[in-house]
User: Which sequence fits this backbone?
């Protein structure tokens, strides 16, 4: 058995080093995705909540952002809620009819829309329409160095820009949730009575059979939490945008995807806690 020469040993070492160099970006990206990014986002959340209690509150910015969110989300939310409620009513109506309990169609549709559908639709519209616009605005300010200029002047960007936008998302989300519930139930009523031959009285009288007031409270809490989440993710991605206009576009895309993932996770956790602590109403 021959021992490797010095030159062969250097070649083997160089090959092993080359493999390590090629794998290093993969490891760095994994660490950045699983440790650094969540850590920086969590730090931003803490700083933002701390900035909420600083005086004075930016009422003008809050009202402007709330009005902007209303303008870009009300019509799409209503248009999405109508087919959403109709589809739920059609599917639930067919299932209830097969089980011989058609009189409970209205109750099951209300539970499905109020408890789950309306917060999800509200969150998706706020994240997709308002969150992406907020991220683009903050990202454009970042690459134009307006954020750095504010910090040089002693102005906290979180207190001045992020807090009003985050609270505006949460505030508008409460009302959009109610809008989705009303429009969705109306669409479900129309399709159940017109297309499925249901009776209006049975649909309306069965509302209280399974639904209860805590269902609405839970939906409002979900909408508020989803609005906070959408605002924070949009602010984080916007304030960390890099690479010029292309970087802002990438930040907007990442904002929508990350917000959707967090919203579904939060929806599962809040629903699980709700079913654990609130007794459900029997038929």
Assistant:
């Amino acid at each position: 058995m021959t021992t490797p020469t010095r030159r062969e040993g250097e070649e083997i070492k160089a090959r092993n080093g080359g493999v390590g160099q090629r794998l290093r970006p993969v490891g760095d990206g994994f660490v950045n995705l699983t440790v650094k990014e969540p850590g920086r986002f969590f730090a931003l959340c803490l700083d933002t909540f701390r900035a909420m209690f600083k005086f004075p509150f930016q009422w003008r910015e809050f009202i402007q952002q709330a009005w902007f969110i209303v303008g870009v989300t009300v019509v799409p939310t209503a248009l999405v809620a109508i087919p959403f409620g109709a589809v739920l009513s059609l599917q639930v109506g067919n299932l209830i009819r097969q089980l011989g309990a058609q009189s409970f169609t209205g109750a099951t549709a209300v539970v499905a829309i109020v408890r789950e559908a309306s917060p999800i639709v509200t969150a998706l519209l706020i994240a997709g329409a308002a969150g992406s616009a907020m991220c683009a605005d903050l990202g454009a300010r970042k690459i134009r160095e307006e954020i750095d200029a504010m910090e040089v002047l002693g102005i906290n960007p979180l207190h001045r820009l992020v807090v009003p936008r985050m609270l505006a998302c949460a505030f508008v989300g409460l009302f959009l949730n109610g809008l989705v519930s009303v429009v969705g139930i109306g669409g479900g009523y129309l399709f159940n009575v017109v297309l499925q031959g249901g009776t209006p009285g049975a649909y309306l009288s069965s509302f209280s059979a399974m639904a209860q007031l805590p269902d609405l409270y839970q939906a409002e809490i979900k909408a508020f939490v989803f609005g906070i989440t959408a605002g924070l993710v949009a602010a984080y991605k916007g304030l960390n945008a890099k690479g010029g206009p292309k970087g802002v576009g990438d930040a907007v895309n990442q904002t929508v995807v990350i917000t959707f993932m967090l919203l579904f996770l939060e929806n599962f956790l809040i629903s699980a806690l709700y079913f654990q602590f609130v007794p459900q109403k029997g038929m």
About this structure: The mean pLDDT is 82. The radius of gyration is 25 Å. The longest helix spans residues 6-51. Residues 30 and 36 are 9 Å apart (CA to CA).
